[in-house]
Amino acid sequence: MGHTSLDKIKALQKNPANVRNLCILAHVDHGEKDYLINLIDSPGHVDFSSEVSTAVRLCDGAIVIVDAVEGVCPQTQAVLRQAWLENIRPVLVINKIDRLIMELKLTSQEAYTHLQKILEQVNAVTGSLFTSKVLEDRAVKEERAEEDKEEGDIEPAECPGLEQVYDWSAGLEDSDDSQLYFSPDQGNVVFASAIDGWGFSIQQFAQIHSQRMGIRAEVLLKTLWGDFYLNAKAKKIMKGAHAKGKKPLFVQLVLDNIWSLYDAVVTRRDKEKIEKMMMSLGVKVMTRDSRHSDPKVLLSAICSQWLPVSQAVLFMVCDKLPSPLDMTSERIERLMSVGARRFHSLPLQTQELKTAFMQCSSDDTAPVIVFVSKMFMVDAKALPQNKQRPLTQEEMAQRRELARQRHTERLAAIQQTESQIQGLPLKAKPEEEEEKETFVAFARVYSGVVRRGQKVFVMGPKYDPAQGLRMVRIVSACLPPVPHLACCTMDSLYLLMGRELEELEEVPSGNVLGIGGLEECVLKSATLSTSPALPPFIPLNFEATPIVRVAIEPKHPSEMPKLVRGMRLLNQADPCAEVLIQETGEHVLVTAGEVHLQRCLDDLRERFAKIEISASKPIIPFRETVIRPPKVDMVNEDLGKQQKVAVIHQVKESDTLHLDPSGLVTLTTPNRQATVGVRAIPLPEEVTLLLEGSADLIRTLEQAGQAQREGRTLDMSTWTLDALMVLKSRLEVLLQGRKWRNAVDRIWAFGPRRYGPNILLNSVEGYQRPSVWHCLEREKGEKEGGAKAEASAIRDFDNSVVSGFQLATLSGPMCEEPLMGVCFSVERWDMNFPTQRTHLDSVTEEDSNSLDASVSESPGEAAGHPEGRRRAEVVAGLVDCYGPFSGQLIAAVKEACRHAFQAKPQRLMAAMYTCEIMATAEVLGRVYGVLGKREGRVLQEEMKEGTEMFIIKAVLPVAESFGFADEIRKRTSGLASPQLVFSHWEVISSDPSWVPTTEEEYLHFGVKADSANQALKYMNGVRRRKGLYVEEKIVEHGEKQRTLSKNK
């Protein structure tokens, strides 16, 4: 494979049928055709799965590489899932087969069985994804059929047999899965050993043996993989090798040859046999390779000529992976269906763009559609326009003269004062640094021809094409103010040649490219087009969740501007990293894991900020929750009712605060004009998980409710309405029992931030306010009069109660962490205003996060008309020495929720990793020791068949995971390495405020109970970091100071 000229690559770009976007750029000569391969490499570590997501979006196919020894790992499953979600076709390479020969010492027959199991594991993952998709499609079809039946008014009496017939099939029988699975006979599997330079597909061996054996290649292709064997007497290929104890054809014709080559070259070093093999294979090696002391050098020289891995993989890529012209309509519709919108609900002009995707046309009339998946930084000197060119004689003479002048000036500067010497270089330095790096957008053209200097629209993630079509027609510098739409110019286009960049004037459809000049318009990813009808593409799907936080500061405070700029650049360059500035002013970096964090910190020091930085210990997020009263104590003894009440109820009563024995907290505002009663109830675990997974839906529901309160309409697709109705029905199913009667219809709000996994419930007698679901009824066709009547049923200061609930759930009483899985039931809300204070309109409905809006209205604005004067008088009456009444109510609800929370058994919830470790039997005990030391819990342990490896699946708190991988490797001498993926939140069983109360607990733990309380340790650590009060002894037994004077 030689070097290809830039002109030939430009010519190949214009033929999208011969372009393969895979996930370094190479020109491949494939028979009579020339192919252009865009190969995007992505890291394999689970912390960098976001890089896989950015690569997958730009590709039409993917090469999935699986280790022949380890088999399917968690990251393999994640990669297959990402490829499936993006609707791209994968091919499989089973690598490191040499380890089966050299390390595991398997025979060719055992290796064949092992490879079969790996293929089964990979196909099992693909099959589960396919099954879930078919079942989802069937559910959607059933819902549409029910809607059609309702619209057609089909009565059961008219169709007497309709209800008795039910289709019990799942729809899998009719689905075509022939091209779904990996199978060597389909040509989408390559067996390889990249370190030894060989790889093959069974097509190669089918062609080799068809000439020698006189059997057609098509027959061999179907029988080389499977339960077939060669009958030497009859000279026929027959089925049933396993039943008859015969060698399968794959072992006899393929693996035996490879095993005998390794045996001759590496194990025995039999020179005569090696020469015979080389002659039969037609391979010639250099003398220095054959005489080399390392037999692997000779092996690589033979294998790279006999079965070159590059040829096998690239032939498979060209034959089995689709071109840009083969993009499926399903993938196009999914890319354009962002958020709650579905493709069929988009404007007609938007739906017509689907044709442009399918045609992948490079005509001038075709709309330009480009997706930017990530921004990456390059040195400005590496750009083609800044590369050094050969100097002429005149330019060299000029540079010599300039060098002499600078030398003279330097000698003169030495004679000046030290302050002047220090002042000279500092002025020019920032300007030089700013010019050293620039951002290039990594993108793909889906339609049209991208030209240098072209202007395009940048669609924000919330851009609505229907709104844009009404306001914008052409791309221009001066756009009308369309929300979430901007205009930018593509200053330069680049061909990505590994690390090298080549400047281009235009790039046709179907190709991957780099775009310069977008750093001001694009943060991480973006959709670009010349048509305002194009909606933004769906967001990239990241498998790794950013969970690990650190606070960062410069070692020298004067370098804070450089740190801020460096963190801004890091945020733009890394798809998964997040940069936050907290209320305290700390600059916080959020990453996916320990390895990702270290990479980000190194990038900050060396590339982006280029300063010395200090990073805090990782900031671990926790959640606070309540549970049902425990039935047993810490030594599993039955806990009496009196002790339970004594332990749980720790709320101190006052004249404005009262605690009922049942757990109801009643609180009165300081001006005695409002009283609220709140009770905290733990939510079932299934409800918490459902609310956490439906955050986007709940956010859409809240936006619809807010729009309705403001008199606006928010268009929601049928799919969104159906999804919200399903969410409501699932909540009704999960919230069963006497205390949850009609609870779903009484939901007041969700929190924190109005879409979290906590619920505010309306249990006030006589207050029939509309629930959060009332906007659905209006969308489904409720009359306008009914909606207005519902809106008028909302009491004054209703939103103050909601705001107090939001503040309470955002920071709990244990360590100011967000709450999770708690329901606050408001059972009493009395307001006692003086008679002169008339009805006040619900002004606070307009802004959920502010105090009463009527208070902030200036008297000058309100005094202009009688209604304004009346409102000003009422407002003045509600402002007393304690402040505005709405503020008092917010504070009262917040405190009531916190006290109600403390009246129940409190627990911390820790973020948990799922941990998968592969280890041999010798180091299994050490792995368990490290897991036990770090509060890990083993879920499963199984031995991998055919190997000495054990697979351990465990859960580990994120708080204990730092240094875990290093410790495992050190304790096991590198024989075990874990993979950590964020999984879920889990309640820590121990009570952080526990003290021994029963006689058994005193006997077991002692009076001090000074054994480590893990929950208390976590809670005190968070409180200490946040500057909150921590109840601990600073000095113990400090009666006398010991000195060393006695020892003198």
UniProtKB/TrEMBL annotation:
Coiled coil: none annotated. It comes from the Eukaryota. Gene3D superfamilies: 3.30.230.10, 3.30.70.240, Elongation Factor G (Translational Gtpase), domain 3, P-loop containing nucleotide triphosphate hydrolases, Translation factors, Yeast translation eEF2 (G' domain). The gene is EFL1. SUPFAM superfamilies: EF-G C-terminal domain-like (SSF54980), P-loop containing nucleoside triphosphate hydrolases (SSF52540), Ribosomal protein S5 domain 2-like (SSF54211), Translation proteins (SSF50447). Residues 1-218 form the Tr-type G domain. Keywords: GTP-binding, Hydrolase, Nucleotide-binding, Ribosome biogenesis. This is Elongation factor-like 1. SMART domains: EFG_C. GO terms for biological process: cytosolic ribosome assembly. One of its GO terms (molecular function) is ribosome binding. One of its GO terms (cellular component) is cytosol. InterPro entries: EFG_II, EFG_III/V, EFG_V-like, EFL1, P-loop_NTPase, Ribosomal_Su5_D2-typ_SF, Ribsml_uS5_D2-typ_fold_subgr, T_Tr_GTP-bd_dom. Pfam families: EFG_C, EFG_III, EFL1, GTP_EFTU. Residues 840-869 are annotated as: Disordered.
